[in-house]
Give the backbone structure.
Amino acid sequence: MAFQPIYVIDGARTPFLKARGGPGPFAASDLAVQAGRALLLRQPFLPEDLDEVIVGCAAPSPDETNIGRVVALRLGCGPKVPGWTVMRNCASGMQALDSAIANIQSGRSSLVLAGGVDALSRAPLLYSDAMVRWFAAMMSMKTAGQKARHFLKLRPAALLTPVIGLLKGLTDPVVGLGMGQTAENIAWRFGIDRAAMDAFASRSHRRVAAAKEAGSLGEIVPLVDGEGKIYAEDDGVRPDSTPAGLAKLKPVFDKPYGRVTAGNSSQVTDGAAFLLLASEAAVEKWRLEPLGRIADTQWAGLDPAQMGLGPVHSATPILQRHGLALNDPDLWEINEAFSAQVQGCIAAWNDEAWCREELGTAPWGRLDEEKLNVDGGAIALGHPVGASGARIVLHLLHALRARGKRRGIATICIGGGQGGAVLVEAAA
Amino acid sequence: MKRENLMLTHWQIQRDADGLAWLTLDKAGAAANALSAEVLSELAQVLDELDVRPPKGLVIRSGKAAGFIAGADIEEFTRLDSPEKGRELVARGWNLFNRLAAVGYPTLALIRGHCLGGGLELALACRYRIAVDEPGTRLGLPEVMLGIFPGWGGMKRLPEVIGAPAALDLMLTGKTVDARKARSLGLADLCAAPRVMEASARGLVLSGQAPRRAQGLQAALGAWPLKGLVAAKARKQVAAKARPEHYPAPYAIIDLWTRHGGNALAAPETIDRIMASPTARNLVRVFFLQERLKGFGKECDFKARRVHVIGAGIMGGDIAAWCALRGMTVTLQDQSLERIAPALERANKLFGRRIKDRLQARSAFDRLIPDPQGQGAAHADVVIEAIFEDAAAKQALFRALEPRLKPGAVLATNTSSLKLEDLRTALERPERLVGIHFFNPVAMMPLVEVVAAEGADPLALEQACAFVRSIDKLPLPVKSAPGFLVNAVLAPYLLEAMRCVDEGVAPATVDEAMLAFGMPMGPIELADTVGLDIALAAGKQLAGGAEAPRCLAERVGRGDLGRKSGQGFYAWAAGKPSKAAPGPVPAGLAARLVQPLIDRAQQLVADQVVADADLADAGVIFGTGFAPFTGGPLNDRKQQQR
């Protein structure tokens, strides 16, 4: 069945706020509400006119586990607009778009607010199993004496070493590798050295800074907190970042001789991104002027230990379906989880043996890096996991339009060994 | 279930098969329940019937969506033309509720919505009370606000149930409490969700549980020897707020509780004195004036949901915050987000103060949307302009705004000094522009002037009034004229006060004169609060060409602008003026100061800026805090002349 294109009407995201130790100023739903309400405000329809709200979120807090519904209600969509939450780790925001697309294509919906959010700075600290067992036993103690005796059994070490929820989330639950270690795997496989990674990271910062300077980040809507403080910009960007400066950082995942550092990895960040997706009928009904349309999507699975190559696995079938060569799309967005991982994707497409074994194709050649992440990426902006997949699709459309270009692919690697890709066509 | 064969107009009684009786008050021809003479006399019949065939238990509830019982029928207070009638009114409820309290079967008041005054006194006469946990549930004895006392058993039973200190606090301030607070005070035995209210009523009334009484220290504070101390402390607290010559009722409440156990019939002279006092008469008048203001816009089915406010300064920002607090979705526009952010901070504080529920406060913050591009105007039901007072800027704004508005949207200006007739020339449909004039501080001031320029669209005016009601303010229709009503009467009063300062009277003495008159704030402090630059500009506009007081012009010349600059007539620190002790107040000073205000009010009635003298009084009381016990400036003058 042919893919029925779905229109992207508009989109907005919050500034991406770097986690700086301790909970950030906004809960995940706060971020999503502020991005969503600014986006909805400029539409000719009201929040109540949406058919549904879909939010991707990898780590919703315990009080907003179905954050999609929380956000829909807080946006003033009213009780009758359903809201739900999708989870595909790093591609949760992209999954929200794809779920919206599927519902629009099947005729269930015609106007959907979809996107993603995560407030990684608010990822919880968890009690260890030993502590949980201690609490459970305490609940069953009846007398004060029993309780006092049980209290003496408390081991302070267990109490004082909580499980860090964020690290749990960033560790593969099947192969047991940290995400950074999967990036080390790829660097090893393709011989990507530290200097190349740092150069790529530094370029990401410079490209974001240049884009900001040029006013190319118009999708950002500022946040305001209850104290009246404004958060207008992505605050993890370091325009003065240099490879030499990055070279000083120590590896954090495979210590002490690994290659992946905090500097050549994406930052831990809070943020939200939303897109408005519509059927052709809705475009006509509300006289909307779309940014462009989504012409295809693809998901792929691969070895969890190589998860960073997910973009190659998911984007290649789109290229094949549409008869495109690797450099035929005008622009590419490959989410920058790690320098090593993006560079690994480029290397993989260019590697004859790898392409033969993994894709069953001839090599695809070298991706032109002047088409890739033209305004920088998650190494500079940060990677609020649930939001990133939506952000790259939205930014790709803006970047294409700003350059008078038409076609682009946004693709993302997914912890657990998956990849997701979206083919977009910008409106003229 | 079985109905009784009584001929009742206002009450219905039903008995369950197991003998539990449900008595429902649904006052005929009224939206809310009030305890009129007829309602009480029917209740007596019901009690007669129940004496003959006692139920296993009795639950008293309301048949109104609006609430339980709003209180006595205040209309009846206006017909008390002799001391006998006053005593009779007190005796009617006192005796009936004593009878209710003494019945042999258990009784319970199921309180959903407001339960005020006589309504709470009825509930207190029941053995048990359940407060239904809903935002609308409010319990209190606000009689003191009408200049009277809770004479139907409230003064006796409330201290017995919740202890004297808390009871006196409620009775002397007239404040009300919600269901949860009622439970924690012990005023309600149970705070129950609506979904379990009937089951809870049945369970509790048949429980055999002892009725709730204040225990321990709380009980001791209501008995000798501590009772005297509690009374003395209460007297002191009242004295800090209300002078006995202005407000005798709170003092009477303390006396009746201390000396007569709350039984006013034991002190008939107190009944006569309080019920016949000008204060009570005037406060009842103020109550009805307020009801009259509440009636404006009632005929109109306009329901605003989205409000767009342009200008995020103190006024615009606070108007936007208030509208969001009252449930509107509000977009707040200014030239940049930096200008809007301080308003959001103030709003967040307001929500934190006014909304106990954290999630509800968050919803209010979500509903207040910063809108630097003004995109919200296109969806708004009401658009309020509150930018700086510059006619050309406002005209340019209206010109750009008008084509973007929804066809039926109300377009309003909050201007206080510019003529609507000039501003609206920029519009294709000039008749649609109305004034919706708020007062500072928006959250505190109940009045909003709804201003009609010549030939304004009557529907737009009606809709503006309906909107003002929907955000729980009191609309006062006025005609477009300099200063409308409130500022027009304030200006000559403030200027006269400053002329006294020019003549050598100390500012603190001037203020003391008016505090003694019964104003909530002295005129000099008020001028400092408003801002002396604004007072000077308003004076020029509203004083009919009279020279500005020297003391005012000098201070403005020096840049001493009052509270906002830290120095005006007083030095200000942390929002408080440091005042010297007032000197002796010269005889006739208050009368001299208030005279220009009254003269101007009279003139504005004659000029039809405000429709009649009652509305002028209402506007001046709710717009300036003018001593409510006087019944308003024009009423006061009339009474003085009598």
User: Anything to note?
Assistant: The radius of gyration of chain B is 27 Å. Chain B has a mean pLDDT of 95. Residues 330 and 402 of chain B are 18 Å apart (CA to CA).
